[in-house]
Amino acid sequence: MPKFNPEQPDITINAATRREVIEAITKTLDDYVFPIVAKEVQTNIRTRWQNGEYNSITSAIKFAQTLTDNIQAISKDKHLRVFYSHQPFPPTNEQGDIKEREKFQQSLAWENFGFHKVERLAGNIGYLDIRAFMPQKQAGETAIAAINFLSNTRALIIDLRQNGGGSPDMVALISTYLFDDKLVHLNDLHWREKDASGKYRDRIEQHWTLPYVPGERYLNKDVYILTSKDTFSAAEEFANNLQQLKRATIIGEITKGGANPGLFQPFNKHFGMFIPTGRAVNPITNTNWEGKGIQPDVKVSAEQAFKTAHLAAMKRVLVKTTDLKFVDELKKAIETVQKELAQQGNK
């Protein structure tokens, strides 16, 4: 899903642009994963248009936001939204010519393929800040390097507080390092797709851990996942998978609540729409987190989540540590983080 930049310049739109976008929306909604809801949204948008509710809107930003608000008021789907971009939309992963694909690759590399920070914290605790689950084809080598760097730490904190989602194949790659070589069923995606005859059919896509990953797997060590109200989509899937499999402790806030994957559909250079064409189904719960979010195991503010996890991780490592040198280091680090967390709570 493209990122919306609230500080981008606006443009003035006319009646022809409004008509083009509304017609494109109603057509694109035919592919929505819930067809009954799609018909309700289509009827509502057409009625508003015919009643002239959009006629006075000349701001592109306001138009996209108004349409999104109208659509989500009925669908309750946080993935289903209209986007405006002042810069022309770039091609998606496999679209465009060679130069466009190179530009796409460069844009992902500029973000370091979603890996914002990798660090060894006090007490030999690993820390991995992932801002997006980018496609494994482009981001795989960076992911592998980041995880292997942390292989000697005694516990791992994965920070998803600013992660808006991304690709399920990257979720599977990172998850694989947290389990042994016995394949683990992570999640299913139920897709609504159009066949060659134009009829819609359902297809189930299963996601499992991989049979092989380079380097050492991160086994028999505690894993903590940090969440916030902005943790969304594939980031929620990652947290939910590991929570249901009892492989990680979730610390932070209830997540945003988006479990319906799909694709971005550009309408023109400046307007497009993300259309969910599937829904996640966890193989353990047979449901998902749409509209509810992931409930953390330890509920604290997003601001306090990091130090809360760091403290919990060190305390667990201390119990298992016998070398006096390391015990002393852990006790000092625990005391420091306890004081910092107390100061945070007093603000």
UniProtKB/TrEMBL annotation:
SMART domains recorded: TSPc
Pfam families, alphabetized: Peptidase_S41, Peptidase_S41_N
GO biological process: proteolysis
Protein name: S41 family peptidase
Annotated GO MF terms: serine-type peptidase activity
Residue ranges annotated for the Tail specific protease domain, each copy included: 97-301
